[in-house]
Write a structure and sequence with these properties.
By secondary structure, the protein is mainly α. The chain contains seven helices and three strands, in the order H-E-E-E-H-H-H-H-H-H. Strand 2 and strand 3 (41-46) form a beta hairpin. Bound molecules: zinc ion. Zinc ion is lined by residues 69, 73, 95-96, 126. InterPro entries: SprT-like_domain (IPR006640). It holds the Pfam family SprT-like.
């Protein structure tokens, strides 16, 4: 998984982020993964016993999607400017603000073209979690903080499909492979 994470970073973020490690660990509640930092660097943790269930029985695509989600957190935690005046608005408490949404949407678009597989970063659920609409670890961090209409348009939430069945996943994979052939 560490190798896969490094490959994803080479493809989408210009190379592996230094001093970052990966580990599997059972996490509390419904948490699929998290990215934490300390003086020694970053740690991406993924829960082996839970998936997002976005791809029916194709759990590998779920784990891949969670890894993409945490890779975006790792990238922003490493390279976003925490002193910048716009940091609060761009990153947002909870981590799924404008910067996360823009990166995640672009990666969801590019991933099928580059790798022939669909990916879902869970960006809508995470945002709703931050906003207090979804249950979970990140519940309610953004009470009273509403993104602009322009942001919501740019983030393209309306393009996100709800949960899908196996047949839908097969169609998704087929379409993703076709995009890679263009
Ligand atoms: Zn997240």
């Amino acid at each position: 998984m560490q190798h896969l994470w490094e490959t994803l970073n080479t493809l989408f973020f210009g190379g592996p982020i230094p001093h970052t490690t990966f580990r599997w660990k059972k996490l509390p509640r419904s948490e699929l993964g998290n990215t934490t930092s300390c003086l020694l660097g970053l740690t991406i943790t993924m829960n082996p016993s839970r998936t997002s269930c976005d791809f029916a029985d194709y759990v590998l695509l779920d784990f891949l999607s969670t890894l993409v989600h945490e890779s975006i957190h790792a990238f922003l935690q490493s390279y976003a400017c925490w002193s910048c005046r716009s940091w609060d608005r761009d990153y947002m408490e909870g981590g799924h603000g404008r910067s996360f949404q823009m990166l995640a949407r672009k990666i969801e678009e590019a991933f099928p073209q580059l790798l022939g597989l669909p990916v879902r970063s869970g960006r809508l659920d995470s945002f709703l979690g931050d906003f207090g609409v979804r249950e979970g670890k990140e519940k309610g961090r953004l009470k009273g903080c509403v993104p602009s209409v322009h942001d919501l348009e740019m983030w393209g939430f309306e393009d996100i499909d709800p949960g899908v069945r196996n047949e839908d996943v097969r169609v998704l994979i087929h379409r993703a492979r076709a995009m890679g052939d263009v």
